[in-house]
């Protein structure tokens, strides 16, 4: 099931299966960050990334989103696949989790075209709650800014672009003039600073 009424202020664009599979396949097969891990899907929408993590053997998956309709659809999708997942209604930037309670965060955050810095708000919180890694998609045009901010301001130990992908943005809103637009995005892997670890 997909989300029928996207909300532009939330920059809701569906994560396509090719991007979701690439992100999760890379996270698991290159780094071992999914199987037997606790995974959070920030801004989960209809649950694509979280569902993929569960199918790849995550120990537990938590989907978080501000949109209740999205969470209902994500929950229904999990039920359809007979997957046991938890869903939390919240605004990511106001998430009150203490400590590093998940191993891995996966996310396709808002790109920040409607509300500047929205993607970085997600990254800031993700690096606070993940103990192993954060996998995130960001527009390629923001690469230097994302890396600099993650390392300098958000205390990431590393920030690595794993690959550049084409994100197909379908014509969802009235202001979209083309049927589909390909946006260049980077698939990032960030490693959070461990508690007590010195950052060089």
UniProtKB/TrEMBL annotation:
The keyword Cytoplasm does not apply. InterPro entries: DNA_methylase_N6_adenine_CS (IPR002052), rRNA_MeTrfase/Polyamine_Synth (IPR051720), SAM-dependent_MTases_sf (IPR029063), Small_mtfrase_dom (IPR007848). Keywords: Methyltransferase, Transferase. Coiled coil: none annotated. PROSITE patterns: N6_MTASE. Pfam families: MTS. Residues 31-116 form the Methyltransferase small domain. It comes from the Eukaryota. The keyword Methyltransferase applies. Belongs to the methyltransferase superfamily. PrmA family. This is Methyltransferase-like protein 5. The lineage of its organism: Eukaryota, Viridiplantae, Streptophyta, Embryophyta, Tracheophyta.
């Amino acid at each position: 099931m997909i989300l029928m009424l996207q909300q532009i202020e939330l920059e809701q664009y569906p994560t396509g299966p090719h991007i979701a599979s690439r992100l999760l396949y890379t996270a698991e097969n290159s780094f071992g960050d999914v199987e037997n891990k606790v995974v959070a899907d920030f801004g989960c929408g209809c649950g694509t990334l979280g569902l993929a993590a569960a199918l790849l053997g995550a120990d537990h998956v938590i989907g978080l989103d501000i949109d209740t309709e999205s969470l209902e659809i994500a929950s229904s999708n999990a039920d359809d696949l007979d997957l046991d997942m938890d869903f939390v209604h919240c605004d990511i930037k106001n998430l009150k989790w203490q400590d590093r309670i998940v191993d891995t965060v996966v996310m396709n955050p808002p790109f920040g075209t409607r509300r500047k810095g929205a993607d970085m708000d997600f990254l800031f919180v993700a690096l606070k709650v993940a103990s192993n890694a954060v996998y995130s998609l960001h527009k390629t045009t923001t690469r230097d800014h994302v890396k600099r901010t993650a390392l300098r301001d958000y205390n990431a130990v590393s920030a690595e672009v794993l690959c550049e992908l084409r994100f197909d943005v379908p014509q969802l809103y009235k202001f979209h003039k083309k049927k589909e637009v390909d946006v260049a995005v980077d698939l990032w892997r960030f490693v959070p600073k461990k508690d007590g670890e010195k950052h060089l």
